[in-house]
Amino acid sequence: MTIHKLTLPLTEEDVRKINVGDNIYVTGRIVTARDDAHKHALNLKEKGEPLPVDFGKLGIYHCGPIMQKDETGTWHMVAGGPTTSSRMEIFQDKFIKNFGSRLIIGKGGMGSRTTAACEKYGAIYGMFTGGAALLAAAAVKKVVEVHWLELLGMPECLWVLEVEEFGPLMVGIDAHGNNFFSDNAKKTEAAREKAYSIIAGVME
Amino acid sequence: MELEKIIEDTAVQLLRISATRLPVNVVNALEQIKETATGQSALLQLGNITTDIGIAREKSKPMCQDTGIISFKLEVGDDFPLKSKLKDIFVNATRRATKEIPLRPNTVDFFEGNPKDNVDVRGHIPYFYIDLVPGDKLKILATTKGGGSSNVAALGMLKPGVGLEGALQFVIDTIIKAGPQGCPPYRVGIGIGGGEDICMTLAKKAIFKQIGERHPDPKVAKLELAVMDAANQLPIGAMGVSGSKTVMDVNIELASRHPASLPVGVVMSCWALRYGKAVIGSDGSVDIIET
Questions:
Q1: CATH number, domain B3-19+63-146+273-289, options 3.10.350, 3.30.1330, 1.10.12, 2.60.40
Q2: Are the C-beta atoms of residues B128 and B71 closer than 8 Å to each other?
């Protein structure tokens, strides 16, 4: 396991150096995007319409945060833990292909389509601790801009965030075709009989 | 102060405690898992968890943005002066807590949308478990359990022929299926017997026992330890990164079953096993119970 301190945006060379099981801390700009934001962004791209941010340069964070505006009109993140990434599995490969995204952040892992896109185009998936909403907010140094707030609402819209040493994120998918979570699910399946035998051992 | 106001204020305070202060017995269980963790990534994940818990306590902010569907377990003394008014008081407290703490509004109605106050427009939420008990006190358990770990709960209406062993295998299957999705280390509550509703309710209540509390019947207590041992053979670990225990504790509630049924309920909590407890006397005295 290697710990990498990375500055965004990542290059293809950066991501090819990283392996599943490594842990990373990222500094730079990320953008929150959940189901609706992914869908909307891909629709606009398909129609050839302009997008408000460059999804290729920003880390994509699966997160529906609680944000608050202070007296001066400046936005702050109150809480921003990751949401379950598997819901974005139907969009992520197209996202990586169309926009050249190199870093996806979420929780719970993603599937084979995302894994294939990460390998082909050079991207990684980092897992942040589910529920650790205040720790995530502590890494946010500045809310840079917000898009689609009226259209999608606070949890679903695009919040562009300046983060400092956000992490540790465990790399769940690397750019070499490896997927930690699907491998570990197989190992978990394989441990079923051992678990059953412990239960059988205490039956009268 | 009026007793009604005291109860409402206490309920708001308990929701705040639940959302922002993880019970000490749960913190200790997580610390113990951290001490025995062997994986570096698991140690980092558990470090994130304990740091987050610390920030929440210090800043009095919700440790997780998902504070779930609010429920209250009430034990109402025979001689406690308020009874039918209690529900309204707790509904008001839920509305206030949503604004004051604040809590994320989570009650979405299919037709009416989200009223943004964590109260169900049709009257089912906050949800109540009410017991009538001797004495003149009101005992309150306030809970803010997140949706992610509720999504991995399961009900099994098994064939009685599979027996107790089959019931406990179903529990293992449920934990395997949950994998990392419900934010482990998990607290597992199991209800066996009764009916489809009874076993789920028993399982839900079981997760709010103190960590380490064993069933009074040693035959059941032995099963609790066996399921915990068995579940900890699964290489899921903290947040699914393997390299640490998967489960912090297991509690089983056993009820008699219909001869033709074997209902098994499995309810899991994420690492953020949150609740607040208090006892209110008829005289308005309030005792917040540290757990």
A1: 3.30.1330
A2: yes
Q: Are the beta carbons of B158 and B170 closer than 8 angstroms?
A: yes
How many domains does chain A contain in total? 1
Chain A residues touching residue B183 (CB < 8 angstroms): 107, 130-131
Which residues, numbered 24 to 63 in chain A, qualify as contacts with chain B under a Cβ-Cβ cut-off of 8 Å? none
Testing the interface with A: which of B41, B51, B149, B176 to mutate, by most A Cβ within 10 A? B41
The confidence band for B240, taking pLDDT boundaries of 50, 70 and 90, is very high
Complex confidence, ipTM: 0.94
Q: Where are chain B's structural domains?
A: 3-19+63-146+273-289, 148-269
In the β-sheet with B69-77, what is the strand arrangement from edge to edge?
B127-133, B69-77, B137-145, B275-281, B286-289
User: A141 in helix, strand or coil?
Assistant: strand
Whether the Cβ atoms of residue A180 and residue A171 lie closer than 8 Å to each other: yes
pTM reported for the whole predicted model: 0.95
pLDDT digits (tens, 9 = 90+) for B258-268: 999 999 999 99
In this model, does residue B1 exceed pLDDT 80?
Answer: no
Cα–Cα distances (Å) from B73 to B139, B205, B276, in that order, read: 8, 9, 10
The token pair at A203 is: 């039956």
